[in-house]
Amino acid sequence: MTPSPDSVRTAAARIAAFVHRTPVLHSTLIDEWAGAHVLLKAEHLQRAGAFKYRGATNAVQSLAAQVATKGVAAHSSGNHAAALALAARTRGIPAHIVMPANVAPVKRAAVAAYGARIIECEPTEAARIETLRAVVAETGAVEIHPFDNDDVIAGAGTAALELLDEVPGLDAIVAPLGGGGLLSGTALAARSAGGGVVVWGAEPAGADDAARSLAAGRLIPQTDPRTICDGLLTSLAPRTFAIVSELTAGVIVIDDDATRAALHMLLTRTKQLIEPSAAIALAAVRAEPSLAGRRVGVVLSGGNVDPARLAELAPPT
Questions:
Q1: Is 41 part of the annotated catalytic residue set?
Q2: What is the pLDDT of residue 311?
């Protein structure tokens, strides 16, 4: 299996000087609501506002000097774009980010603020891939995929490794699931730490390719995802499918109303700004019967949500 469980510990040592060791939060009222003892790993307080900075930093810092000088590249309209831009700036190398023309201005501004070169393309997957291919050919930059990359996966797993180090005796960890980089890294971290911690993924009902793929025993690509969890719209890659299949207990599928309710709990009880793609993991704790009464770690993957959206994300009355 690549990456290996040990690669998460290697990543943790490599990126320690660059990332925040984020706090673990707890709320008795959230425990009562979820029906479990919940420990919240606050990756929304990570640099660039999401766990993505860990994987991007591990990938960028792993590059040989002669390779790194030409820079890194990716296509992204979300957290990976900002994370890679900041990781590249930290190492002092160029970052070339392909972004669709209809990307939210606040996301484009964040990437630009970190000094990346932004290349616009049409808002289709095919256009993003083709534009990135041209950018790599032009610059010689190394593509850093947001989840289908061993170093990115290992870096993502360092959040769970910190959680397990700080909170001994966890029964389970729940992490959001889109392309599977965070969940794969979390599962590898749990295997590295030992102790039999069970790992679950939390996936939107409107973007449940992973649940369907695991049930079928083969990859079933996402076709028309519809969910408020805009960070969880991507399909698993063969690499992440293999890790998730082997090392996790499975996927808990959550509808958007349950995610809204969890988001409301997090906002009102912890006073933290969390994005829906992170709140879904708390909703999954409440929904999964096997987690009732257990000590459960939840990876709050990010907090990059426009405050103006909070009213529309309120739970149904």
A1: no
A2: 73
